[in-house]
Amino acid sequence: MRILAALALVGAAGVIGWGTVMYYRGLTMRPVAPAPAPVRSALTNTRFDTLAPDRPVALDTAVRPAASGSWVTARPGFQFSRPPSERDGVNPCSLPEVDTSAFEPWSNLTKGRFIAPLEGAFDASGRFELVIHLFGDELARRELVESRQKFVLYSLTLDPGENYAALFSGSGFYGQILAQVEESLGKRRGTPAHVRHVALSAWSAGYMGVLATLAQPEAKDVDAVVLIDGMHGPRDALEHQLAPFVDFARRAAAGERFMLVTHSSIDPPDFASTTESAHHLVSALGARPEAVRRNDRYGLELVEFFTRGNFHVRGYAGNDKADHCAQVTLLRDAYAALGRRWKR
User: Fold this and answer.
1) Cβ distance 262 to 327 under 8 Å?
2) CA 155: distance to chain centroid?
3) By the 8 A CB rule, do 95 and 142 touch?
4) CATH at 240
5) DSSP state string for 159-205
6) pLDDT, average across residues 58-78
7) How far apart are CA 206 and CA 87, in angstroms?
8) How far is CA 243 from CA 56, 138, 291, in A?
9) CA nearest 154: which of 146, 144, 165, 168?
10) Residue-wise pLDDT tens digits, 105-131
11) Residue in 338, 251, 259, 262 with CA at minimum distance from that of residue 297
């Protein structure tokens, strides 16, 4: 019943989801006040970050403004955005191209397209790892290349008038993707090809397709979910809409699956932000994120940290379009972590 209720809300959230995309698209690269200097604090303790083993996280002991009411439902803080001078001179919404020559060109399927590495994708039995990414084909390919993983990548970006939730709800579309990718790769190799592990990743409104997919019986073996600054929903029905994600988070926390959720501090006026939604997931596990500080690529500033088992939440400061775009680069950390998990 929880899944059926969630799907009903996902369908209703189609407008909300694309509203998010249009809201973010409407954000301009406006002049904003630089990030305020944090209150002086002794950042003496650190946390090891399994997603970024070479980048420790410093615990922030500075007193942060107290939220009125529950921390779970509090609106995002950190309402600022770093200027271009603090983003390595790069516009995160127009990232530099990378060398993709280690991968084959895109191959079109009935809907969506995929790429495969020229070498190293298959094990001795013809099995391969598949990432299904929703929203931002070229962005996902860029980050897969940067992660140096030999995954097959299927990607789908819908037009603004289309709906991810409707496409993946009860249609068998998820199974069709697997079958078509396996068939295409098998023909190229001349021998059967089979999916070994599947990860679902999404940026922004693509998360709705992931949510709908998890509610399908055929997706019971999905091993990983990666949601980059996209998970949101109606404030008055968030618990019901996010129920499949809560179930998956519990499995990841127990070590059975892998899940990464990231959020910016963008504060949409009409629905629960990615911050509030991520807090809901952590709260459902009876926990709370830690206050931290770490500078990440392209001006991202990590301010919240949570890991339990294989369930990870990473929260970032920033309330502008550039902050939303820069989050896409977190896919490379997720893909690299999956490579370690799958021992590729």
Assistant:
1) yes
2) 14
3) yes
4) 3.40.50
5) -TTS-HHHHHSSS-HHHHHHHHHHHHHHHHHTS--EEEEEEEEEEGG
6) 89
7) 25
8) 32, 30, 26
9) 144
10) 999 999 999 999 999 999 999 999 999
11) 262
Residue pair 103/118 in contact (Cβ under 8 Å)? The answer is yes
79 pLDDT higher than 60: yes
Token duo for residue 39: 């209150």
Q: What is the chain's mean pLDDT, rounded?
A: 89
**Strand 311-316 to strand 258-263: parallel, antiparallel, or no bridges (unpaired)?**
parallel
- Total residues found in the chain within this entry: 344
Rounded to 10 deg, the angle between the 2-26 and 207-214 helix axes is 170
- The H-assigned helical ranges of the chain are 2-26, 137-147, 164-168, 173-189, 207-214, 238-241, 243-253, 274-284, 321-326, 331-341
pLDDT greater than 70 at residue 38: no
Q: Which residues 6+ apart lie within 8 Å of 159 measured at CB? A: none
- How is the beta sheet containing 46-47 ordered, strand by strand? 46-47, 57-59, 290-295, 301-308, 311-316, 258-263, 224-228, 194-203, 127-134, 152-156, 113-115, 107-108
Contact indicator for 152, 132 with CB cutoff of 8 Å: no
Q: What is the rounded CA–CA span in Å between residue 243 and residue 74?
A: 20
Residue 26: Cβ within 10 Å count: 8
Task: Identify the domain containing residue 330 by its residue range.
Answer: 2-341
Position 259: which residue type? M
Which residue's entry shows tokens 């997919």? 213
Report the C-alpha gap between 209 and 262 in whole angstroms: 17
- Residue of 9, 2, 7, 27 whose CA lies nearest to 318: 27
Question: What's the structural domain count of the chain?
Answer: 1
